[in-house]
């Protein structure tokens, strides 16, 4: 009975729906584990490289090698580097970013006055030329803001209340922050063993096909997840330093945010440049500084497109960034953080298996039934 391919397909679809239902019900408790697994997957190639280097270094000292395994040393060394980077971030970057945000907040009335002085003449001319339309537009804008402001602030308010409205919620929030790195270290240590164990569960007759496809999925995830996130971090650091050097208000947080705009092609230039120019303009209307900000973005895009992305991500990723972003949004809306983390692996798997599924469909009786003979 299970030889019928359509029955197998039906059972597969039902199994996927059942898995989706379970993930939706267990999304909250699985979130720390999913985040930790994503971090471990991201860092595993670096640990493997360190392990090979340490294995060669420890080979002449067999007594030390028996006492200290290369894998443990590689995980410990990487954790030490990550901890040092975190401490450096907390000691240098966070206070500077906080100072920039506080300074921008202090000067907010000045920025508002600058905008009002520039926009007020335009509004006055529109009021004189189109008095009824201007009044109607203002009235509708106020009604829309009053009607939808609770909806916009609702998710943020509920999230803050859920996390800190009770002692238990606060403890769970702090506990998740502690659990994620602990889970990540354990998973990072056993990541290769986990992968080997999953490979052993694949039937022998299907291993050549499954292993070849899963290696392609891993290549796509490595290129997009590790490569694209690395590029975003490098661009974010470049823009943070560049905008801060130009005197743009909130240069560090805005620069880091603009760096992650690069997940969507050209978005860091299309959306980030106007944002940086606007912030620079409200602080100082000097055209020279606006030109320097534009030059910073042009240099960043040129270096990213011609040197960074080809070397880190590769020429052909195979996953369009817009498709991945759509998948992340859909996964997040359906399954929360777990869905967002599973969005990229699922999208990569679908892109790899899509050609096989398409070929299977074109060869099926359902597609070819009723076709005229050539």
Short note summarizing the structure:
This protein is mostly helical and 374 residues long. It has helices at residues 5-25, 27-58, 62-67, 70-106, 108-129, 131-164, 167-200, 207-246, 251-260, 267-270, 272-283, 287-312, 321-362, 365-368.
Task: Please give a handful of descriptors for the protein shown.
374 residues, mainly alpha, 2 domains, 14 helices, 87% helix, globular
Topology diagram in text:
Elements: H1 5-25, H2 27-58, H3 62-67, H4 70-106, H5 108-129, H6 131-164, H7 167-200, H8 207-246, H9 251-260, H10 267-270, H11 272-283, H12 287-312, H13 321-362, H14 365-368
What do these coordinates show?
With 374 residues, the chain is mainly α. It folds into 2 domains: 24-201, no CATH class; 205-362. The chain is 87% helix and 0% strand. It is built from 14 helices and no strands. The chain has helices spanning 5-25, 27-58, 62-67, 70-106, 108-129, 131-164, 167-200, 207-246, 251-260, 267-270, 272-283, 287-312, 321-362, 365-368. Helix 1 (5-25) runs antiparallel to helix 13 (321-362) and helix 8 (207-246) packs antiparallel against helix 13 (321-362). The chain starts with a helix and ends in a 6-residue tail after the last helix. 18% of the residues are buried. The model has no long low-confidence stretch (mean pLDDT 79).
